[in-house]
Amino acid sequence: MFKAMAQCLKELIFLFFLAIFSKAAEGLKPYSRATVAPDAVNNNYCLSWRLAAEANNLRGWRTVPAQCMHYIEAYMMGGQYERDLDFITEQILSYVSEVVLSGDGMDAWILDVDDTCISNIFYYKKKRYGCEPYDPAGFKAWALKGRCPAIPAVLGLFQVLIESGFKVFLVTGRDQETLAQSTISNLHNQGFIGYDRLILRTASYEGQSAVAYKSDIRKQLVGEGYRIWGNVGDQWSDLEGEFSGNRTFKLPNPMYFVP
Amino acid sequence: MFKAMAQCLKELIFLFFLAIFSKAAEGLKPYSRATVAPDAVNNNYCLSWRLAAEANNLRGWRTVPAQCMHYIEAYMMGGQYERDLDFITEQILSYVSEVVLSGDGMDAWILDVDDTCISNIFYYKKKRYGCEPYDPAGFKAWALKGRCPAIPAVLGLFQVLIESGFKVFLVTGRDQETLAQSTISNLHNQGFIGYDRLILRTASYEGQSAVAYKSDIRKQLVGEGYRIWGNVGDQWSDLEGEFSGNRTFKLPNPMYFVP
Questions:
Q1: Cys bridge to A142: A18, A123, A193, B90, which one at CB 3.0-4.6 A?
Q2: Does B24 touch chain A (CB under 8 A)?
Q3: Structure-model confidence comparison of residues A33 and A97, the more confident one
Q4: Total structural domains within chain B
Q5: Residue B182 structural domain
Q6: Do β-strands A107-111 and A227-233 pair in parallel, antiparallel, or remain unpaired?
Q7: pTM (2 decimals)?
Q8: Residue A24: pLDDT above 60?
């Protein structure tokens, strides 16, 4: 109880400084005042919005509601996002510890890449944490840099999976032709070493939904004889569809929605 | 921003009074001090726990973590639960408004009963908001009273569905033999009037998981020619499995898990 009060006070102080910072920042960024009035921020509404998104009650949303920009900023940068990731990876590790591997090398695990293994938070910070619509050219330019930092909790999970003997498949909607090299390099420079395959989207899957594309990839893996024990992604479209895996885990991501 | 600060202050005041109340209540309830120390309350942890539960990352949990009792109490009684329900039903109504009904009387909608149509919050309040394990006899005695209040947001949705021409099926895991009469009466006294069928669990489904039982009921409805446009429940087991419906909606419920 008293901890909760102390936490609330801490949040109050954080929000106070965020308010001062935002006021200062508004002078620099002409769009801030125009599109996100400080008094439009509504923590309760944005908490409901975020919960609905994470529970898969919202579909096809294109941008974060403008009045939630500061809320999402506070969520992503204030520590709760990391705490949520840590909590979920603890659950995953608990499940992993219960899996009895067959030893035939066919026990598989699937991880998404963007905002699962490596983070795009610095890119989305410039897109007002998802309040701006998806910008394919901008994202491609960012991804080509190969500078996404690892998500520490997922890197830890990845290492446990490798050490436990799982075959880890990284399945991403990133375009094979243009982004394969920078993605391989980025994963390597962040410590994702020892995975079985990185599977990127080839031209034959162009225009298909993530659910259709990723289901087909998983179908092929199951066809090769792999048992998919787990499947982790920040998008419901990583986890829905066929051959989704024995257990699926949804990591938080309130910044964008991939159909 | 300032609204968020005001809200945080409001929450601080709420938590302050909750702390005073809890201190007073501890004198009356000998278990409080023993099992939930006030300083064990951890809002951040409990928010991560709740998010993980709502996003279907936790499976088979039997009780709310003891340190989250006050957090869950504040969530359920402090307004955010209602706000979350209101937000999700707005999303559902938006989807409902887009459905073009065929007019042949075969457009169907499925609603769960407990903590979807009618609320068990007063029962679970006595079970420390889910910190105590499921008590079948206690719950049966409560359900026999037929005094669960309607969840206002879902009653509003129900009325729109009926007026729009959907055939509404209420599908519940409650036992047909012992609870049919009190459930029918309870739904009626709370305004759930005009549904097509209330389907309770018959002896033939005894011991089956909710997913298996509810999937089989939906399969029968689809077999009768119904198109399931929507399916709303507070448990993932209401929404998983076969014939789940064109859209599913997960209502919040951090108090218990039905496998």
A1: A123
A2: no
A3: A97
A4: 1
A5: 43-250
A6: parallel
A7: 0.84
A8: no
